[in-house]
Amino acid sequence: MPHNTPALTPEQCDAFGAEMDALRQRIVADLGTEDAEYIRQVLRAQRVLEVTGRSLLFAGFLPPAWLGGVTALSLSKILDNMEIGHNVLHGQYDWLRDEALNSQTFEMDLVAPAELWKRSHNFGHHTYTNIVGKDRDIGYWILRVTPEQRWTPYYLGNPVYAALLSVIFQWGVMLHDLEAERVVSGEKGWDEVSADAKKMAAKALRQVAKDYLLFPALTGPLAPLTFAGNATANLVRNLWGFSIIFCGHFPDDVATFTEEEAANETRGQWYVRQLLGSANITGSRLFHLLSGNLSHQIEHHLFPDIPARRYPQIAEEVRDACRRYGLPYNTGPLHRQLGSVARKLIRLALPGSGPDDKHTEERAAKPQAA
């Protein structure tokens, strides 16, 4: 945990949890027409951007048209993944009973199947947020992002692995959902792996065929330019998604927890763990839209099934509660949070990095606070 995190009493944790529960109940009771119209407007904008982008690529021999097509298609993919797909798959709009926004049937424009993504993300990550050994999103089993991960020479490549992951992020997410480390440990059988791999292969094949065969073929002699345009749009989306997600989870002062610290936690302690294990990013309304409002990662971890458009509205209330309980509220501009993540990845690539042994021992001996 961060050195400056106060140890709340059980009574304080319960009181904090009661405030968060009350805030959630108030927002849920207020959901209605404006929320429905908002997400449908975003969905319409995403579709217009996709049609515009793919149409402009038919004139891709003109550099301005190609650049415009790539820009529109990149924005379409970002909206589809961040503000629409991620949030719809959290069930944020299931109450609308709209088939186009139903978490059980929606598929993102990604190679990862929604079914497996929900299992890994909605259940695995949001249940065990930042519990080392339980939350598989801690470093995605590729990177060392906390001193509690035992250093080995493999981690000397930490910055390189992160750079490569940012480029192929959608593929990294898909392979992460395969849970290969559970096969090695014997927790998952090969029959389960085979079934998951078939689902991944089918979804990936559809995505590759769409972006790199069908749409390039439709543009005839411009196929190579269309192929490059689709590849560039996917790259932009990957880099953006990687940046937003890593800035919400891995800057300095974001806490990790042992299984012992999180054992038998109360509702209030669960809320505190979500708060301490997250970080926000400041920015404009457009920035928040393009981040899927995951720039409010703190609020998302506290209330993952509330429509993300509500996070900016409740952020000040959450921040005020943190002030009153002496809890940190980790936020900052993109460049600062991203720089913090980069420095951490470099620092933790080396042995002997992070908190010293004395602090680690003190932390292990501290009474459970979260």
From TrEMBL:
Residues 350-370 are annotated as: Disordered. Residues 355-370 have a biased composition (Basic and acidic residues). GO terms for molecular function: oxidoreductase activity, acting on paired donors, with oxidation of a pair of donors resulting in the reduction of molecular oxygen to two molecules of water. The lineage of its organism: Bacteria, Bacillati, Actinomycetota, Actinomycetes, Pseudonocardiales. InterPro entries: FA_desaturase_dom, Fatty_acid_desaturase. Coiled coil: none annotated. It comes from the Bacteria. One of its GO terms (biological process) is lipid metabolic process. Residues 65-331 form the Fatty acid desaturase domain. This is Fatty acid desaturase. One of its GO terms (cellular component) is membrane.
